């Protein structure tokens, strides 16, 4: 079962996006936590303790990805599919047997994409990160990553580029990540420092998107504590779907794949 745009033009972004007051003028911060579903205890902790405004990226390699995604949606969280893309250092850095690879024909990579997209339902889009790998080598090929973005666009899905500083997706609704919260170290001090950096980006630019590579206990604890005083500091925790941008070069007619009130 693959997502698609409805006959009335309704996209999965709109159908499964978290409600958000788009008239709120405060700087918006969104966070995606990846590798959901690989560890039952870590997944349970993330769904239970993280604010509902945090999005969860479910690994296609999870044993029961649909179960994890359904529980996240019950809490009001947006979900995304993690896409295994060829990273720097491949094959030493191995994104798994279902990865999209630079040496494969585009048609084969799109088949692998469909496999990931069919693992569960009810998500707003995809993000190119799995097991801490962000698919840098695959994303560096415009034709390869462009074909993936076009496929997502035609299904009404957004795409988040997990590489900090990367431009917004050219052929899909989406945006790039600004700060990786659990690198270079996964200590509480480093996570707190990165969250402060995320706030500064939002203050300077109006929006900021953070990414955490895994739902470790210290990461979940750090985000939960940070979110408590966010309103008082003048920010709003927003869903990823409230930060997406229009593609620069959308494939074909864009009218049928237009989410509700994107940025």
Describe this structure in words.
- This protein is of the alpha/beta class and 263 residues long.
- It contains eight helices and nine strands.
- It has helices spanning 12-16, 40-49, 65-74, 106-117, 136-139, 142-154, 188-205, 217-228, and strands spanning 28-36, 55-58, 79-82, 125-127, 158-161, 174-176, 179-180, 207-212, 236-237.
- Helix 2 links the parallel strand 1 (28-36) and strand 2.
- The longest helix has 18 residues, at 188-205.
- The radius of gyration is 17 Å and the shape is globular.
- The chain starts with 11 loop residues before the first helix and ends in a 26-residue tail after the last strand.
- The mean pLDDT is 94.
Set out the fold topology.
Layout: H1 12-16, E1 28-36, H2 40-49, E2 55-58, H3 65-74, E3 79-82, H4 106-117, E4 125-127, H5 136-139, H6 142-154, E5 158-161, E6 174-176, E7 179-180, H7 188-205, E8 207-212, H8 217-228, E9 236-237
What is the structure about, briefly put?
The protein is α/β, with parallel strands linked by helices and 263 residues long. The chain has helices at residues 12-16, 40-49, 65-74, 106-117, 136-139, 142-154, 188-205, 217-228, and strands spanning 28-36, 55-58, 79-82, 125-127, 158-161, 174-176, 179-180, 207-212, 236-237. Strands 1, 2, 3, 4, 5, 6, 7, 8 and 9 form a 9-stranded parallel β-sheet that branches.
């Amino acid at each position: 079962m693959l997502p698609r745009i409805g006959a009335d033009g309704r996209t999965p972004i709109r159908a499964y996006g978290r409600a958000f007051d788009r008239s709120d003028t405060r700087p918006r911060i969104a966070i995606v936590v990846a590798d959901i579903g690989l560890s039952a205890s870590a997944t349970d902790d993330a769904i239970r303790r993280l604010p509902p405004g945090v999005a969860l990226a479910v690994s296609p390699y999870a044993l029961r990805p649909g179960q994890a995604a359904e529980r996240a949606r019950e809490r009001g969280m947006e979900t995304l599919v993690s896409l295994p893309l060829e990273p720097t250092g491949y094959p030493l850095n191995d994104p798994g047997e279902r990865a999209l690879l630079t040496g494969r024909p585009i048609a084969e990579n799109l088949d692998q994409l469909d496999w990931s997209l069919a693992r569960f339902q009810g998500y707003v889009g995809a993000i190119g990160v799995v097991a801490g790998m962000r698919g840098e080598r695959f994303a560096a090929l415009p034709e390869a990553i462009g074909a993936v973005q076009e496929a997502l666009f035609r299904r009404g899905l957004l795409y988040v580029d997990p590489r900090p500083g990367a431009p917004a997706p050219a052929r899909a609704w989406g945006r790039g990540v600004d700060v990786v919260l659990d690198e270079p170290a996964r200590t509480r001090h480093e996570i707190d420092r990165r969250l402060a950096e995320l706030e500064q980006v939002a203050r300077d630019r109006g929006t900021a998107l953070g990414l955490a590579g895994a739902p470790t206990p210290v990461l979940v604890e750090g985000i939960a504590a940070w979110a408590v005083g966010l309103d008082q500091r003048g920010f709003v925790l927003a869903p990823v779907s409230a930060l997406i941008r229009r593609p620069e070069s959308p494939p074909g007619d864009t009218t049928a794949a237009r989410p509700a009130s994107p940025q």
